[in-house]
Amino acid sequence: QVHLQESGPGLVKPSETLSLTCSVSGVSVRSDNYFWGWVRQPPGKGPEWIGTVYYSGSPMYNPSLKSRVTISEDTSKNQILLEVTSVTAADTAVYYCMSHSGGKAVAPRDWGLGTLVIVSS
Amino acid sequence: SYVLTQTPSVSVAPGQTARITCGGDNIGYKSVHWYQQKPGQAPFLVVYDDRDRPSGIPERFSGSNSGNTATLTISRVEVGDEADYYCQVWNNSSDQWVYGGGTKLTVL
Fold first, then answer.
1. How far apart are the first and last CA of chain A?
2. What is the mean pLDDT of residues B41-67?
């Protein structure tokens, strides 16, 4: 059973960098054929995919966010990291970590509880 | 980019059948996944690959997909089914997940 837990600052100032961590338990982030992704959901709106990584593969990013987003793996801590640069109020959202195995198009079944990030001065 | 369109809201009485649709260009050629989301909770997978149910999901939840429309059907709707429902597909041509805008199911 994969368990995911997001953590990070709940408040980020405009123009700064948002950094979040997804702590993974139950499976190694280096496992073959496991995919690790981030999704965000602004208040009152639907989910928006941010990006997905998999061990030894190239990250895949939402084209609308690609210029500002980096997703990476910290294998020593078994964590998935998210950075979003130059944030604005539009980046205010609940950020979720998700995972799935078996292929990039397989439905993600495992989600963290999410963490709310507010962008405000 | 690929767009998924959902009706914003659906209302049904308890015991009736709710049908929630997800429209997309030739969506019938893609695998559609459906998530249920209750307030303050993460999305929860209820149907995957058009019509399959994860273990623990009641048979009341079913799915279909053909042409330009995928449908999530909830039979014998219960008060506990009241939630937002989102469809999701993997767009192979751009290597990205796409979500529908969501449908709020209200159980009258």
1. 39
2. 97
